[in-house]
Amino acid sequence: MFTGSYVAIVTPMDDQGNIDFASLKNLVEFHAANGTHGIVAVGTTGESATLPFDEHIDVVKSTVEYAQGAIPVIAGSGANSTAEAIFLSEQLADCGIAGFLSVVPYYNKPQQRGLIAHFKAVADSTDLPVLLYNVPGRTVTDMLPETVAVLAEHPKIVGLKDATGDLKRLKATQALVPKDFLLLSGDDQTSCAFLAAGGHGVISVTANLVPKQMSELCNAALAGDIALAEKIDKSIAGLHTALFIEPNPVMPKWALHRMKLIQSACLRLPLVESEVKSQQLIEQVMRSSGVLF
User: Fold this and answer.
1) 243 and 188 in contact (C-beta within 8 Å)?
2) Is the peptide bond prior to 110 cis by the omega test (within 30 degrees of 0)?
3) Which parts of 34-180 fold into alpha helices (H)?
4) Which residues are catalytic?
5) pLDDT for the residue 64
6) How far apart are alpha carbons 251 and 265 in whole angstroms?
7) What own/partner pairs with CB < 8 Å and gap ≥ 24 does 197-201 have?
């Protein structure tokens, strides 16, 4: 369950900022054809912060429809309001998703006890598995390994997406949680090392552009062939960096538009189009990585 390469998929939009469902279908089919193990719909990369509930729900449901059961879909359902997170989980529970990804509540800076109460309430509201998501660079609050260990006792909380990029944090968490508790990297730059250290997979931004490589990297690492995993990682390492020279998903959307996989690089305000120098840099990296010829 939830191992390997899961893409944190973008939410395509047309030039007017409306959801571009035709491009979304194209992306889902692209991932199904190139070995991606699963899709996370409407997470951070999917611009969850600026999609109202109706669009959020429509995008998740459409992603499930387009996947046609070929690959599992996890729904981003986090919020800084526990009631809103529960509302999203209730609205999406019966649409065919495989589970939920629920982020640490942002802005209101809950205590560790508050995080425990929040995630237990979210998990109690659904029969589907829940992945925790710790990304302190965006949420400010950092969910500590001891807190994860308490939450791992809940039967519906099955894993953690760790976007700290700190391999010492992985080791600290591993020492406290059951061996079958899933530990997924949320940081592409350190994901290969994360897998080599016993992680179970990655929820990847880079996989938006190179799904086959990310899938093969994960397959190799999980099979114990770390040398092959590192070789693949080295070939796409430039993308891990270039995709984050502006706030995610600014560069992934521009790159996917450049690849003709989506019709527009449009983003929701307050995010705006990338700088020309950023576009030139990532195009150079895309060419050196074999994404563009």
Assistant:
1) yes
2) no
3) 53-67, 82-92, 112-124, 136-139, 145-151, 167-174
4) 133, 161
5) 98
6) 9
7) 197/167, 197/170, 197/171, 198/170, 198/174, 199/170, 200/2, 200/3, 200/159, 201/2, 201/3, 201/4, 201/5, 201/6, 201/37
Q: Which residues partner with 99 through β-bridges? A: 74
Q: Say whether pLDDT at 89 is over 90.
A: yes
Structure-token pair, residue 263: 């019709």
pLDDT in tens, 129-170: 999 999 999 999 999 999 999 999 999 999 999 999 999 999
The residues, any chain, with a CB within 8 Å of residue 140's CB and separated by 6 or more, are 106, 107, 109
HEC states along 36-76?
Answer: CCEEEECCCCCCHHHCCHHHHHHHHHHHHHHHCCCCCEEEE
Question: In the numeric block, which tokens belong to residue 28?
Answer: 């889902």
Which domains can be identified in the chain, with CATH numbers? 4-236 (3.20.20.70)
Confidence of residue 292 (pLDDT cuts 50, 70, 90): confident
